[in-house]
Structure formats: C-alpha cells, structure tokens
Amino acid sequence: MEPRIVFLERDSVKAAFSRPTVAHSWVDYPDTRPADVVERLRDAQIAVINKLRIDAAVLAQLPALRMIALAATGSDNVDLAACRARGIVVSNVRGYADTTVPEHVISLMLALSRNLMAYHQDVRAGRWPQSRHFCFLDHPIRDLRGATLGLVGQGSLGGGVARLAEAFGMQVLWSERPGADRVRAGRVAFGEVLKRSDVLSLHCPLDASTRGMIDRAALQAMKSSAFLINTARGALVDEAALADALRQGLIAGAAIDVLSAEPPPSDHPLLAPDIPNLIVTPHVAWASGEAMAAMAAQVVQNIDAFVRGAPRNCLP
To answer: Which stretches make up the D-isomer specific 2-hydroxyacid dehydrogenase NAD-binding domain (predicted)?
Structure first.
C-alpha cells in the first residue's frame, strides 16, 4: 500500500520539499490547529510536523500512523514513550542548523554588547542631529574579545558557537549539567559557570532536568554585567523571573529567540514593553534559507529510508 504522508505545518518552512522516491500520496496543510490534528492524520501512515504537539491521547486515535517525520531537531513536542509503545518511528533532522544558529547567537551577542538596538532607536528618534559632537555615547559598548562565554549544551550547535566565539577571542566555559553529581573532564560546575560568565548561552534539550534551569536563583548568581542568550527552548528559562531580573538590573541584558508558548500570548511576560535591554526574535535562529533547504531535504530522506525498511535519525 502506498503510504499517505500528511504535512501539518507546511508554511512553517520556507523551502521546497522534493517528493520521496517511493510511491506515495502527499497532502500539505499550511497550518493546523491542535483540535484538527487527529482528523487530518486519521488515515495517514506518515505525519510530518514541526512544533505541533503529538501526545499519547492523540496517538491513541491514530491506529494507522507508523512514522512521525520531524521537520526539526528538538522532539519535546512528541511523546516518545507513547510512540515506542505503539511501534511508531520518530525521525528528526540533524546538523542542518550548525551554521545558522551559531551565527544568530553571535549576532545577538554583538547586538547586546554594542547596544545596537538602543543606538538604532536613538538615531531613528532624532538624537544624532542634536549631538554636540560627531558621535554620541549614551550607551556603553563592550568588546567580545577577552569576555568569558558559558555554554550549556555541548552538541553541534554549542560547538559551532564555541568556534565562532573563540575566533572573536572569547574564553569558553563548558557547563556541567545542573545538579550533576560530578563534574566531567573539560566541564565546569553549572553554578561556577553562572558566576564567571560574561555571556551565558543555552544549547541543551528541554527535559525534566533542564526545565526552568535559569530561575531567579540562577539569575541572581550571574554577574550584574552578564548577558543571557537562549536559542534552545523557551521553558529552560523562568520567563517571569527573567523579566523581573532585567527590570531590576540583576543582569545587563538578554536575547531570546524562543518562548515557552509559541506563538506567545500578547500578555507574555517577555513581550512587555517596559523591559530594558531585551531582544526577542521570533524563533528564527534556525531559519536561514540554506538551513531550511537542508532540513527539507533531510525530512524527505528520512521518509524514504523508513519506507525502504531502513529508518534513520530515529529517536529513542
């Protein structure tokens, strides 16, 4: 039987998807509400998703489903245990964002350290023509060279950030997992990384051990001059605590590409207009044209491999 493939979030990826080489049928939906997931996947053998949640209750209503092809690396939106119990293969894409995410992180570091947003806003508001000198220096500017970068997560994305940061002359600290019983060779205890870092960047998966790891206590442990960058998962950070920390000056600034709810509600704590020194981008660190094209190709390769009986990039 030809597998029926249903892509529930086609417009979440601005790249062309080739079609699998095996015989199949393919249905695209530009976007899908959670309430419509079961109906749209009812007769599908393969689901292609990006960030839609597929949990045990949904899977129980989809007896035909045999594979979930993630158009993403992270899998915290899929109940992997329920998939294992039902014999459903879950494959993700890997390595496609190894350039785009590190470049986005460095861009955010530079924007914070050089106060680019504040200067841009001041110029747009007419501040420069009013200056008594050729420039105006209303906001401090710091170099990355010589600064200490703490990285939480030593996968390919963290490694890519480390390589770029070292090219700028930064010192890199690799954090041990929060709450770890011992510190592995080449790592530094999480609490020590918080205290020593001028920039802290998160690149770890979201799970029970990392959820809310950047809470008020962690923010209080950081330097008052430090910056926080999160391009991993929004729920790694206590977002209300971060908003308060920025208002109170506990840290110097933050740049966030991910939120715990996406799209966020209009009253999300990190969307409040009074938070100083905060940059929020709408989960686009992964989304260079080159990266999206590579990701789309991998999704189709994963589907082809599954249908041939040799699934790849399978999640446990």
So the answer is: 106-285
Instruction: Calculate helix-pair angle for 156-167, 100-113, nearest 10 degrees.
Output: 50
What are the DSSP calls for 103-160, one per residue?
Answer: HHHHHHHHHHHTTHHHHHHHHHTTTGGG-SSSS---S----STT-EEEEE--SHHHHH
Write down the pTM of the prediction: 0.92
Domain 99-280: which CATH class? alpha beta
The C-alpha angle with vertex 86 and arms to 84 and 88, in degrees rounded to 5, equals 65
Residue 112, pLDDT > 90, answer: yes
- CATH class for the domain made up of 4-96+290-308: alpha beta
Q: Which of 2, 39, 166, 262 is catalytic?
A: 262
Catalytic residue among 283, 290, 308, 312: 283
Contact 236, 206 (CB under 8 A): yes
Question: Is the confidence at residue 1, as pLDDT, over 80?
Answer: no
Q: In the annotation, is 262 catalytic?
A: yes
Q: What H or E segment, with its residue span, contains residue 202?
A: strand 199-202
Amino acid code (one letter) for 301: Q
Name the burial class of residue 35, with classes exposed (0-12), middle (13-18) and buried (19+) by CB atoms within 10 angstroms of its CB. exposed
User: Any catalytic annotation for residue 9?
Assistant: no
Residue 277 has a CB neighbour count (10 Å cut-off) of 18
Residue 205 pairs with which residues in a beta bridge? none
Please indicate whether residue 283 is annotated as part of the active site. yes
- In the chain, where does the domain assigned CATH 3.40.50.720 lie? 4-96+290-308, 99-280
Per residue in 254-306, pLDDT tens?
999 999 999 999 999 999 999 999 999 999 999 999 999 999 999 999 999 99
Of the residues 104, 203, 233, 268, which is catalytic?
Answer: 233
